[in-house]
Write a structure and sequence with these properties.
globular; 11 helices; 4-stranded antiparallel beta sheet; alpha/beta; 7-stranded mixed beta sheet
Length: about 325
């Protein structure tokens, strides 16, 4: 199975025999806007074991939940694997296409896997007491779903529910954390990697009931987040202007990218998105061919053919700066 992701700038630059700084990475869905922080890593105290009290308080304030309702992990992917090891069911239904680490974790932990096509079978039958996984906004096309009706169905089936809200920060929508007041088999995954432009800082958050978090922590190591990660996230969350600016600029640049793609002669369909990327269905050219013709311009895009229910006619383009998107536009006009 191919679980590869976008964003391998090092390999791409090596292939083109150029510097990484020359690459325009439109394959990676990491926010191109960075928070404004003042942190001297050389002055960090790293001789003692880290204490996470301040980090937990910062993250719990961000997501408006009690600190006892969260567990922090060394990134979202690490959280996924821990959750799949933790759950007491071994039957998972993944609304797909979805982030590929879910399928990878299910395979690793010997789950019976059922994939549900979000585009055609959203209301498909759900097995009692199974695990359901739903990414919202979705990947790779960025759709936001109002899932209240689905939640009612899953709850009636007594399912364990895992909702991935890693891209919710790009929207104005609210988390479904309110359901935790009345349903205790709900887990919500939050990844700070995407919105806070910190793929190299590994902090992922699971939100659930206090009782569930206690059980989850029983099989977790005492220290799994470095002092560097902890201090960086705390500093990032002090930048109160970042959220508003980031949402506004990403929204504007998403519209610019859509206009570019609309004029592209190989565009067959542009998917609506609530995230910082746009998926396109191509015509008369496939994803691999599209990648090849962009190489002379040192531009990377994401081939979506390894996502379930998609083929090589689908590509994902990340929202980046006006400068990078204009270079992408100029490259397309030369094709």
């Amino acid at each position: 199975m191919n679980f590869s992701h976008g964003g391998d700038i090092t390999a791409f630059a090596s292939q083109l025999n150029c510097d990484k700084k020359d690459i325009i990475d439109l394959s990676s869905n990491i926010n191109f806007i960075k928070p404004d922080i003042e942190l001297d890593f050389n002055k960090l105290e790293i001789s003692s074991y880290p204490n996470y009290d301040k980090l937990y308080k910062s993250v719990s304030n961000l997501y408006d939940v009690d600190s006892e309702q969260i567990e922090l992990f060394n990134g979202g992917s690490s959280a996924i694997f821990s959750l799949f090891r933790h759950f007491d069911t071994r039957h998972v239904q993944i609304y797909s296409p979805a982030y590929l680490e879910y399928k990878k974790a299910a395979v690793k932990h010997n789950y019976t896997i059922e994939l549900i096509n979000r585009f055609t079978d959203l209301n498909k039958y759900i097995a009692d007491n199974s695990l359901v996984v739903f990414v919202n906004p979705s990947t790779p096309e960025g759709s936001f779903y109002h899932i209240e009706t689905l939640m009612e169905k899953w709850i009636s089936k007594k399912c364990t529910i895992l909702i991935d809200e890693s891209f919710l920060d790009f929207t104005q929508a609210k988390s479904i954390a309110k359901y935790l007041k009345n349903y205790d088999k709900l887990y919500i995954l939050k990844s700070m990697t995407k919105f806070y432009s910190s793929a190299g800082i590994r902090v992922g958050t699971v939100i659930s009931t206090k009782a569930n978090i206690i059980k989850l922590k029983e099989n977790e190591p005492l220290w799994k987040i470095s002092q560097f990660d902890s201090c960086y996230i705390q500093e990032v969350l002090k930048d109160k202007k970042f959220v508003k600016i980031s949402k506004a600029v990403n929204t504007a640049n998403t519209e610019y990218l859509k206009r570019i793609l609309k004029e592209f002669k190989y565009t067959n369909h542009i998917f609506n998105t609530s995230a910082n990327f746009v998926m396109v269905e191509l015509k008369t050219i496939n994803a691999q061919q599209f990648q090849e013709v962009l190489k002379p311009y040192k531009i990377m895009i994401r081939d979506c053919s390894n996502f379930d229910f998609l083929d090589d006619s689908f590509v994902r383009i990340a929202v980046k700066s006006q400068k990078d998107l204009t270079k992408f536009k100029e490259a397309l006009e030369c094709l």
